[in-house]
Design a protein that fits this description.
23 strands, 1 helix, mainly beta, elongated, ten-stranded antiparallel barrel
Length: about 325
């Protein structure tokens, strides 16, 4: 582990600049990109303090009638830290059993500003990497080409649905959970005590929420292709960045009933529920052709916070997704 950290700390990147080559701009049309993109994501990682998962997903985005854009996300966990067998089989569990995390989100953006601006655009000609012990050297050869960048500023909104397994002890939240069955009430967090055959120092359930969100979007698009002296293939810059910030509110936030060891079911509630949240993130894809794509976001989702008051509590999350983007031109969508 120490050697890995050392390698990261000693990573060095060198960039060589070349502006002596002649070139010809073949295309500079950021306002004429393909209007629909399908993303196949074999990998995502969601480090949510409530539940950490790895999984796969499908995404899609579209540019519609100049003023609108839309995104749809679907993710399903194949590795779920809470939806599994646990060492202490006596702990209360979800009445209907565990279900690995499912996430679905549609969103729509309205473009308030959509302008083309002249900028110097970087066109990478070649890149190579060499290693020497713990040192990494990356050499990149590029030229700066006068081009056009499309800048979009707008507002966005949508909703998301999430169903995830939860560990009641996350974020020191255990003492904020109670379970009821008629006149019988159980408060979790006591060691050495059993109720209906179950230990109650911890427990597991499923959390379901539907949250609305709204925020701002800042898109940056380049679609420039060049023919450069000495290179047989064309080189270009086809970046599509979408930066966004959102606030969230969950009108629906519920927990599945829990089953104790003897089969008795209890309704579950939490006294530290917080229905609000926020996030900031970025999505990137190639605006021209099939290529890798990625997304990254962080923030706090609605949920339970326990006794933690700072940024890092049971609602905090860090999410990353990687996949392949496949752009199309759909005739029934006017971009």
């Amino acid at each position: 582990m120490k050697s890995v950290i050392t390698a990261i700390l000693l990573t060095v990147s060198y960039v060589s600049y070349s502006q002596q080559l002649s070139y010809k701009v073949l295309k500079d049309e950021p306002d004429k990109i393909k209007n629909f993109t399908l993303h196949l994501d074999p990998f995502y990682a969601d480090a949510w303090s409530t539940n950490t998962t790895l999984g796969f997903g499908v995404r899609a985005d579209a540019m519609i009638m100049k003023r609108l854009s839309a995104n749809v996300f679907f993710r399903k966990a194949y590795l779920d830290m809470n939806a599994r067998s646990h060492a202490d089989g006596s702990l209360p569990k979800p009445k209907n059993g565990f279900s690995k995390m499912t996430y679905f989100e549609p969103a729509v953006s309205f473009h308030i500003i959509d302008k083309l601006k002249k900028r110097s655009v970087k066109v990478v000609l070649s890149s190579s990497t060499s290693y020497s012990g713990n040192y990494k050297t990356t050499s990149t050869k590029y030229i700066m080409v006068p081009g056009t960048v499309r800048k979009i500023r707008g507002v966005r909104g949508g909703l998301f649905f999430v169903n995830t397994a939860i560990d009641m002890d996350q974020g020191e939240a255990i003492k904020t959970w109670t379970a009821k069955n008629g006149n019988e009430t159980v408060t979790f967090g006591e060691f050495g005590t059993r109720v209906h055959g179950s230990a109650i120092y911890n427990g597991y359930s499923q959390m379901r929420q539907v949250a609305l969100f709204g925020g701002l979007t800042f898109k940056s698009i380049t679609n420039l292709q060049t023919e450069v002296e000495g290179y047989s293939k064309t080189r270009g810059n086809y970046n599509f960045y979408d930066f966004y910030v959102d606030v969230m509110y969950a009108p629906i936030l519920s927990y599945q009933d829990v089953k104790f060891a003897d089969g008795t079911n209890f309704s579950l509630s939490n006294s530290s529920n917080n229905r609000t949240g926020w996030r900031a993130g970025v999505l990137w894809k190639n605006a021209s052709h099939t290529f890798l794509s990625y997304g990254f976001e962080f923030g706090q989702r609605p949920g339970y916070a326990g006794s933690d008051k700072g940024f890092l509590n049971s609602r905090s999350f860090l999410n990353m997704v990687m996949g392949i983007s496949i752009p199309y031109n759909l005739k029934f969508i006017k971009s």
